[in-house]
Amino acid sequence: MASRKTLHPNRDSEDKYSILLPTYNERENLPLIVWLLVKYFGESGYNYEVIIIDDGSPDGTLEVAEQLQKIYGEDKILLRPRAKKLGLGTAYIHGIKHATGNFVIIMDADLSHHPKFIPEFIEKQKEGDYDLVSGTRYKGNGGVYGWDLRRKLISRGANFLTQVLLRPGASDLTGSFRLYKKEVLESLVERCVSKGYVFQMEMIVRARQLNYTIGEVPISFVDRVYGESKLGGNEIVSFVKGLITLFATT
Amino acid sequence: MTKLVEWLFGVSVVVAAWALVSFDLLDLSLPQTYREVAWPMPLYLLVSFGCYSLATVGYRVATFNDCDEAAKELQGQIKEAKEDLRKKGLKM
């Protein structure tokens, strides 16, 4: 059949993409995000694996992950759980150790990042041989769903302030939907010490400092469907602290 | 050079240039009009930057895309995924 060739246009490529999914109490979301990943990688034909790093969720996320592994196969779904919650940076280090792909994709497992953008990330990366490709809510068709005016104002204001102070060469600093060359992620993760929102910001600021090239793809960010998303005073204070730290040290 | 140092450097250059002209530190005997223009310049710069910032942030908030389509698409796919996963034997 002639159509078979176009069905999996990228199957012969030697590139492999490892998706790192750090989870904590994502029993509801995990099957859905995995289903979507399988769907879009199946359609685009790229070689991939999903690495689930569960930090001892009490809600049984790991058990659901084991079922998914049975359904989709041990070569596609890898489980690398840890005993307790240890933070995002170490989750990435832990995940990279087990990743067999030459590219690593990091994203949230709460469905705010849609896997349909991954083929665009990959094309973008190939287009300019970028060291990292970052999803951006602030450019082109990018955007958010489920944010009120206050949240939008804080987000835009914080982003503007950061752009003025740090001139990072990327429009979305606190987003965490990104594709990295594996060795680039390794070298960045080693250098980054921040937590939370600031961790993602530090990653991209250090990337620029090390002269890595950055590509951007507009994404739509759909705020948590299940579970809660918060932006309180604590987050804002830690963001400002992180911004000042980066301002003085990078 | 950290961003902080870059900023300090930039600000000192501007302040030095401003002081030179405003107070005629090098005795260049500049025309009086130069000094009169230079003297309130920092305030003008600050006010214009403030206006620019407010306008930019306001415009960006107003034009922030609401991705209603994306949310609808996702809801549809969640339904589809749940059915398919149930068929494949997943116990939620």
From TrEMBL, chain A:
Bilayer-spanning residue ranges: none
Named cofactor requirement(s): Mg(2+); Mn(2+); Ca(2+)
Enzyme class: transferase
Location of this chain's protein in the cell: Endoplasmic reticulum
Record keywords: Endoplasmic reticulum, Glycosyltransferase, Magnesium, Manganese, Metal-binding, Transferase
The protein's role, per its UniProt record: Transfers mannose from GDP-mannose to dolichol monophosphate to form dolichol phosphate mannose (Dol-P-Man) which is the mannosyl donor in pathways leading to N-glycosylation, glycosyl phosphatidylinositol membrane anchoring, and O-mannosylation of proteins; catalytic subunit of the dolichol-phosphate mannose (DPM) synthase complex.
Pathway(s): Protein modification; protein glycosylation
Protein name: Dolichol-phosphate mannosyltransferase subunit 1
Subunit text: Component of the dolichol-phosphate mannose (DPM) synthase complex.
GO CC aspect terms: endoplasmic reticulum membrane
Residues covered by the Glycosyltransferase 2-like domain: 18-187
GO terms of biological process kind: dolichol-linked oligosaccharide biosynthetic process; GPI anchor biosynthetic process; protein O-linked glycosylation via mannose
MF-aspect GO terms: dolichyl-phosphate beta-D-mannosyltransferase activity; metal ion binding
Listed EC numbers: 2.4.1.83
SUPFAM superfamilies noted in UniProt: Nucleotide-diphospho-sugar transferases (SSF53448)
Protein family (similarity comment): Belongs to the glycosyltransferase 2 family.
Domain of life: Eukaryota
Catalytic activity: a di-trans,poly-cis-dolichyl phosphate + GDP-alpha-D-mannose = a di-trans,poly-cis-dolichyl beta-D-mannosyl phosphate + GDP
Matches recorded under Pfam families: Glycos_transf_2
UniProtKB/TrEMBL annotation, chain B:
InterPro entries hit by this protein: DPM3 (IPR013174)
Pfam families: DPM3
Annotated membrane topology: Multi-pass membrane protein
Entry keyword set: Coiled coil, Endoplasmic reticulum, Membrane, Transmembrane, Transmembrane helix
UniProt GO cellular component terms: dolichol-phosphate-mannose synthase complex; endoplasmic reticulum membrane
Subcellular location: Endoplasmic reticulum membrane
Keyword Transmembrane helix: yes
Segments crossing the lipid bilayer: 7-23, 43-62
GO terms (BP aspect): GPI anchor biosynthetic process
Subunit structure: Component of the dolichol-phosphate mannose (DPM) synthase complex.
Family: Belongs to the DPM3 family.
Function in brief: Stabilizer subunit of the dolichol-phosphate mannose (DPM) synthase complex; tethers catalytic subunit to the ER.
Protein name: Dolichol-phosphate mannosyltransferase subunit 3
Organism the protein comes from: Perca flavescens
